[in-house]
Amino acid sequence: MIVWVQRAVVAGIWVAAIVSWQIYRSSNGLSTTETAQRFIDTVGGSWWGIFVYVLVYLARPIVLFPASILTIVGGILFGPVLGVLVVAIAANASAMVAYGVGRLLGRAPGTSDEMTGDDTTSFARRWSNRMRDNSFETVLIMRLLFLPYDLVNYVSGMLRLQWLPFLLATALGSLPGTVSFVLLGASIDRVDEGIGGIDPATLVVGLVIFVVSLTLARLLRRRQPAQSQSPPPDSTIEGSTS
């Protein structure tokens, strides 16, 4: 009972934060990029800008502000070198925030060990067990495939993946995307004026990194089936009773 109260409280606070943020944006007529540009205009050139940027990035997953936009903002504010460092620290810290919220919300539906029955539940349980057994490679592949950043964070927490493999895979797998978006940001002056001012060379570098990332993800996915060919100890029993 206490667990369900905890989940309800966390979910209530989370939903309230999202709704409050959307109400604020709507009431001020701000789009996502306009909000980002206001932030740039406020902290740009300030000595305390890095600290505020990190704090905003930590709060970002709570209100589901796009990680890609804020990463581009980091490139605009801090340039290509310092920007990668600052964004990498902020992004990994924010991933742990979302991961922690996911853990507080509990396991994803259909992944509880006590649940048995239909094929859907059985598939969900096998899928979540596989993720827990191969946390590092699974998260690394999802990062290299550029799957939605916050979705991966929250699901990983809800499935209770081990935090250290999750963090290491996030730091490594998110680096190509971080570099790409920071370089994109460093090549433009404003985030609310579209892509007209993008440096072509930067665009090519970003595309190359994107392709390399997808290629690595594909190679890692090919390795996983080979590593999991041997069935778990109880698979024979489950097969005989199904």
Structure description:
Residues 109-116 and 226-242 have low confidence and may be disordered. This protein is 76% helix and 0% strand. The protein is an all-alpha fold. The longest helix has 28 residues, at 200-227. The chain has one domain (2-18, 27-228).
Order of helices and strands: HHHHHHHHHHHH
Ranges where pLDDT stays below 50 over 5 or more residues in a row are 109-116, 226-242
Output the radius of gyration. Answer: 20 Å
**What's the mean pLDDT score?**
81
Number of helices: 12
Structural shape: globular
Q: End-to-end distance, in Å?
A: 33 Å
* Structural class determined from secondary elements: mainly alpha
Q: State the total count of DSSP E strands.
A: 0
Number of domains: 1
Biggest β-sheet strands, sense, barrel? none
Helical content class:
over 70%
Q: What is the percentage of strand-forming residues?
A: under 5%
Brief summary of the model shown:
This protein has about 240 residues and is an all-alpha fold. It is built from 12 helices and no strands. It has one domain.
Topology:
Blueprint: H1 2-27, H2 32-43, H3 49-63, H4 67-78, H5 80-105, H6 119-133, H7 135-144, H8 149-158, H9 163-173, H10 175-186, H11 200-227, H12 235-241
